[in-house]
Amino acid sequence: MPSPSDHRPASQIPGGAVFPHRHLTGIEGLQPHEITFLLDEAEGWIAANRGRATPDKRLAGLTQINAFFENSTRTLLSFEIAGKRLGADVVNMHAAQSSVKKGETLIDTAMTLNAMRADVIVIRHMSSGAVRLIADKVDCPVLNAGDGRHEHPTQALLDALTIRRRRGTIHNQRVVICGDLLHSRVARSNILALTALAAEVRVCAPSTLMPPAIERMGVTPFTDFDNALDGADVVMMLRLQTERMTGGYVPSSREYHLRYGLTLDRLARAKPDALVMHPGPMNRGVEIDSNVADHDRSAITEQVEMGVAVRMACLDVLTRRARGVEGWA
Amino acid sequence: MSNALHFRDARIVCPVGGERRGDLFVADGRITDAADDATVIDCAGKLLLPAIVDLGVAAIDRAAFRAGGIVRVGLMPDQSPVLDEPGIVQRSLLIGRPDLWIHPIAAATRGLLGTDLAEMAICASAGARAVGTGRRWIADTGVMARVLAYARDLGLVVVSHAEDSGLVGDAVATEGETATRLGLPAAAALAEPLAIARDLMLAESADARLHIRQVTTRAGFDLIRVAKRRGVRVTCGITPAHLLLSDNAMSDFRTFAHLSPPLRSEDDRQAALAALADGTIDVLCSGHDPRGPEEKRLPFADASAGAAGAATLLPLALGLVRDERVSLERLVALLSRNPAALLDIDTGALSLGSEADVMLVDPDAPWQISADTLPGMAGNTPFDGLPVQGRVLRLFKGGREIGAAA
Fold first, then answer.
1. What is the pLDDT of residues B77-129, one digit of tens each?
2. A4 a known binding residue?
3. Domains recognised in chain A with CATH numbers
4. Can you give the pTM of this predicted structure?
5. B184 → closest Cβ in A128, A214, A217
6. Residues of A in contact with B253 (CB under 8 A)
7. B218-230 and B191-206 are packed helices; what angle lies between their axes, rounded to 10 degrees?
8. Count of domains observed in chain B
9. Are A217 and B181 a contacting pair at CB < 8 A?
10. Which residues form the Amidohydrolase-related domain (chain B) (predicted)?
């Protein structure tokens, strides 16, 4: 089996010029061809993951620290599996068992992780900008696994990969992102990635959950979900946190479902072959009905699969310089 | 040797007497028309200005004040402990002397909690020159009405912070493209004019003196402009940050640009420059709030708001003169005469008989603002790296030199 990277034209560009970034702190700052490069790299890992024929332990001997200052099950697991499939020694640090609870500052924690000579650090943090702050202080590549409301780049990459595989292209696809955009890092990263790859992005939320000036990011805002769905190629639903359903931002979960729940009836407004996506975990019966989530047009479990492949690609690409991969020194 | 001074050949700018080239004499700590046996200071045509009265500083930072030409400060009540007790007020009054005269702004409500009136008269007798709400708004309209009415009885100005706390919530930025891209909790700029509108109506109805420490929005300036025309006893201030920076300075999560109130849109910044030019703004202050790395080297929303501003106030203000936003004479009023009048202290001018709080300034001396070398307790300046012009050469409080910057 050829390694995933050597049959791709982009990866034959020497000197690591195809992806000149040290960290992946966000989609912002990535050129469209750099996003495509990561997607191409991930593509190769999908087959490898399914086949599991020849294990590729290219990260063997490297230490990957997953520093999660905010609770996560799915993303942490996905990064852990991605690292282990590549042969890295994966260590997880949870905020609950860390010295963060004892008042240590974020920078001090970062310096500590750095002093342990990690080869790559994956960070999730509840504050926007926290990952970039750490990235500036450590010597190894840093991967953002979600910072506050700011960015969640690997989620956007796995969503883009899912769309590209299921729809054939991202270019000119009409993508509707619906839900709590105000508090969503998934939405921000997706908007950046999808607009960079020339999709037509519509965002839909009640005005209480719509970020101000969002149209400046190149998207069309809607408050009426039915209108937004008109002719959609992809419908991407966002999770509504339970604490926001009790009157602070929306009156109740049932009223939210009435206006923004994705039902089969509503889905009929989209294209007949429209793709349904959700970053998970889902609130079935709130933002998405079960019969939609489990429909054959739903790509929700495929998104999870793509997540591992995308994270393997990111871990591989970001450690190439340190591993002295030819052309990346 | 007498302590008399003879400033020879200076370019003297006074908000009362205007500008002239000539000499200035000081004897017994006061400005006189002649002095015997005076030490001659050759000014070589450099600027001789009233020293700065900085209204509303968050911390006592001698080195920064000295470098900035500041000899008197109005100290904000949100200290630790809060300035709501005569003993605490009196202590803060005395600790700076003789170099630095601190004029405490006492808390308007006990503990600055916005519920019960603080002992304003007792604090005033202990040396407080005003009462204030600190860096927060009094949300309860009934309490604010009583604060204004009670302070009016005592002849005290109420220094308020105008941000509607319900609208602000946990926001750390102004709503707009920058905050949305960075994913920062943001509040509509409307929070400011909403608060100003309420406080103006309350002040008008109580015939109280209201000073809004920082006004930063177009709608806020419009309200104050109209209220002044109507005869409301309102004044307002601003810092150079809100005149020179807009919210895109927060890009890359620069916590030195995390201010309270937050930086606004470019349109609001333009309105601030217009309000400075047309006289709506009365006071230009530093808002000096030094914060060390332990409070600033954090994710944006977790970092403390505030910027060190004392050492950069004068050069940034002189830049406004150079850009023809304001005349030098009016700038001196904004920096010294007007804040002195607000605090009801007789300084801020170079008239005969007034206290000799003066500074000799080289308005052209070039330097570069650097967070690493900024004089004072911390270098959290949003102007890090900016080249500026203007340095304080020598600084005098009551005719006594207090250690000049180089």
1. 999 999 999 999 999 999 988 889 999 999 999 999 999 999 999 999 999 99
2. no
3. 10-151+306-321 (3.40.50.1370), 153-299 (3.40.50.1370)
4. 0.91
5. A128
6. 128-129, 132-133
7. 10
8. 1
9. yes
10. 136-401
